[in-house]
């Protein structure tokens, strides 16, 4: 299994090289965001089998990040069997990698959508030109700001950090007043202050403030990932200045394009309706979808073997192996789907070595279905270990049982 180790800023260059090989780069995987996460989690990292793996822990909870590297060159079945324990949870896995895993790992993974944490990928040429009807409202707001205010734009450098921190405090309080997810606002503020504290060590940060009559009214701060792509984790606006937000997004696109950057990730909306509405109306090139993935190895899922013999309304199901928690979902689906039209069901447990509470619930579900169909169920050839479980739980008195003969 993987030997995870602590890491620091000195590992950024190596990690960045692995990150650049990913066909999709989620904002949460940026070098800065991962290092900032160490303020909230225990984060460890390892380089194994041409991938960089990361594990996040807080209290008793633990999850892994999506491994980074050249995903298309990996034999995922072999790598998972060697390195990933059963039950491992991967969080915020990009859609492209999920598709690869579905194809190569099949039923060994379970997938749950994380819509609130999808990134918005902007094509910066569109954001700079703002042409066409769909960008009309942004274009009008940006033009209105330019006409109405005496503004100037200044690059973010350490000499304005104190002023920027003061603006951030006010903007962060305003954000908390406007969103339901106050933890999101607090995390955003903490990560932003981390970026300022480690500006020189992070190296690839750039941004600007927009001033009106000398006062900061908006800022944006980006992290360049490679020659043509950046991530935009931070932006704040004083909404008392009409159009300042739209002007800031337009100017951000302008200076990013000057650096050769073509696309950038705008951070997720954490499910906040107002944020989602605004970001959707930046008309992203594509959404970078992310998912939670749980790994349950196929060899564990199929610890139980099922065979059947049917004669009209009579069905015998022979179970062997272990009907445990890992194999329960597989067994339940196969067993219950075989019961349609059955009036006389027999479970032959001659080869079953173990049954868990999940396995008992499958027998109960089968009995209920058979009785609903006007039939009855028998459980025969119950071995000693399974018998002990049935007796301790009281199910020996519910099922029509026969024991396995002593040989």
What does it look like?
The chain has 407 residues and is of the alpha+beta class. The protein has three domains: 9-116, Aminopeptidase (3-Layer(aba) Sandwich); 119-267, Aminopeptidase (3-Layer(aba) Sandwich); 302-403, STAS domain (Transcription Regulator spoIIAA, 2-Layer Sandwich). Helix content is 39%, strand content 30%. The protein is built from 15 helices and 19 strands. Strands 1, 2, 3, 4, 5, 6 and 14 form a seven-stranded mixed β-sheet that branches. A seven-stranded mixed β-sheet has the order 8-9-10-11-12-7-13, with helices on both faces. Helix 2 crosses helix 8 and helix 13 (325-337) runs parallel beside helix 14 (357-372). The two termini are 42 Å apart. The mean pLDDT is 91.
From the alpha-carbon coordinates, what is the Rg to the nearest angstrom?
Answer: 29 Å
Averaged pLDDT, please? 91
Number of domains: 3
Number of separate helices: 15
Task: List its salient traits.
407 residues; alpha+beta; Aminopeptidase; Transcription Regulator spoIIAA; 3 domains; 7-stranded mixed sheet; 15 helices; 30% strand; elongated
Summarize the structure.
The chain has helices at residues 12-20, 31-37, 76-83, 95-105, 124-129, 136-148, 161-178, 182-197, 199-202, 244-258, 273-280, 298-301, 325-337, 357-372, 384-393, and strands spanning 42-48, 51-58, 61-65, 68-69, 89-94, 109-113, 119-123, 151-155, 205-212, 215-224, 229-237, 263-266, 286-288, 290-295, 304-311, 314-323, 344-355, 376-382, 400-403. It folds into 3 domains: 9-116, 3-Layer(aba) Sandwich (Aminopeptidase); 119-267, 3-Layer(aba) Sandwich (Aminopeptidase), CATH 3.40.630.30; 302-403, Transcription Regulator spoIIAA.
């Amino acid at each position: 299994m993987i030997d995870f180790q602590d890491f620091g800023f000195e590992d950024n260059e190596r990690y960045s090289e692995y990150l650049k090989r990913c066909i999709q780069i989620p904002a949460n995987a940026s070098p800065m965001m991962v290092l900032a996460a160490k303020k909230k989690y225990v984060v460890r990292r390892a380089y194994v089998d041409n991938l960089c793996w990361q594990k996040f822990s807080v209290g008793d909870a633990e999850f892994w990040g999506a491994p980074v590297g050249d995903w298309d060159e990996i034999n995922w079945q072999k790598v998972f069997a060697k390195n990933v324990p059963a039950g491992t949870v991967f969080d915020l896995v990009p859609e492209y990698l999920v598709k690869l895993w579905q194809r190569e790992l099949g039923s060994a993974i379970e997938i749950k959508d994380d819509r609130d944490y999808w990134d918005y990928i902007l094509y910066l040429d569109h954001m700079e030109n703002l042409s066409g009807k769909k960008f009309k409202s942004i274009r009008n707001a940006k033009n209105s700001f330019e006409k109405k205010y005496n503004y100037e734009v200044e690059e973010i450098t350490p000499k304005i950090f104190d002023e920027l921190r003061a603006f951030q405090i006010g903007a962060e309080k305003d954000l908390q007043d406007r969103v339901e997810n106050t933890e999101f606002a607090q995390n955003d503020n903490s990560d932003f202050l981390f970026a300022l504290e480690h500006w020189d060590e992070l190296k690839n940060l750039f941004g600007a403030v927009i001033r009106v009559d000398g006062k900061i009214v908006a800022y944006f701060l980006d992290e360049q990932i490679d020659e043509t792509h950046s991530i935009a984790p931070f932006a704040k606006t004083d909404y008392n200045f009409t159009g300042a937000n739209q002007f800031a997004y337009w100017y951000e696109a302008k200076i990013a394009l000057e650096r050769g950057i073509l696309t950038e990730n705008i951070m997720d909306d954490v499910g906040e309706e107002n944020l989602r509405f605004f970001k959707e109306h930046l008309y992203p090139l594509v959404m970078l979808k992310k998912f939670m993935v749980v790994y349950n190895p196929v060899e564990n899922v199929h610890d139980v073997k099922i065979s059947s013999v049917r004669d009209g309304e009579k069905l015998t199901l022979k179970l062997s192996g272990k009907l445990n928690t890992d194999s329960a979902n597989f067994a339940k689906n196969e067993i219950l789907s075989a019961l349609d039209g059955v009036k006389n069901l027999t479970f032959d447990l001659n080869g079953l070595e173990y049954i868990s509470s999940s396995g008992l619930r499958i027998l109960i579900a089968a009995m209920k279905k058979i009785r609903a169909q006007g039939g009855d169920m028998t459980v025969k050839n119950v071995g000693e270990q399974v018998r002990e479980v049935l007796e301790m739980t009281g199910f020996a008195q519910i099922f029509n049982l026969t024991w396995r003969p002593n040989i």
